[in-house]
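Practice problem 4.
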């Protein structure tokens, strides 16, 4: 089962990425823009989703298009959670216990791409 350390390793490989502690847990930013974070069971989250987040490690990442999030939920509803809040949309939240390690790296990298400036994306692609 992947852990937050796996998210950290994936994020550390991305230019300009930095981790910050937030009130909800760990979060990753690129040039001040949030792209991945540990979910916290905020009162504004629907009760059924809040229960999952309170009892399991759940991470969320930005996605390029809301349709991408819908597709992931439809393909793997046991892993990907439906919308938790409108904050930071478009995004996808997922149970770390069910995510494949390679898919985790892909989700973190693609989230970073949605937020990173073009020059950092070019730097990453050239490396």
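Answer key:
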């Amino acid at each position: 089962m992947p852990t937050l350390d796996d998210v950290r390793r994936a994020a550390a490989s991305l230019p300009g990425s930095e981790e910050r502690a937030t009130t909800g847990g760990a979060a990753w930013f690129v040039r001040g823009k949030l792209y991945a974070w540990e979910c916290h069971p905020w009162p504004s989250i629907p009760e059924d989703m809040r229960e999952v987040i309170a009892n399991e490690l759940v991470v969320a990442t930005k996605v390029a298009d809301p349709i991408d999030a819908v597709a992931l939920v439809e393909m793997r509803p046991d892993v990907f959670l439906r919308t938790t809040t409108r904050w930071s949309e478009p995004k996808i939240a997922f149970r770390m216990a069910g995510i494949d390690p390679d898919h985790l790296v892909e989700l973190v990298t693609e989230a970073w791409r949605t937020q990173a400036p073009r020059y950092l994306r070019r730097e990453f692609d050239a490396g």
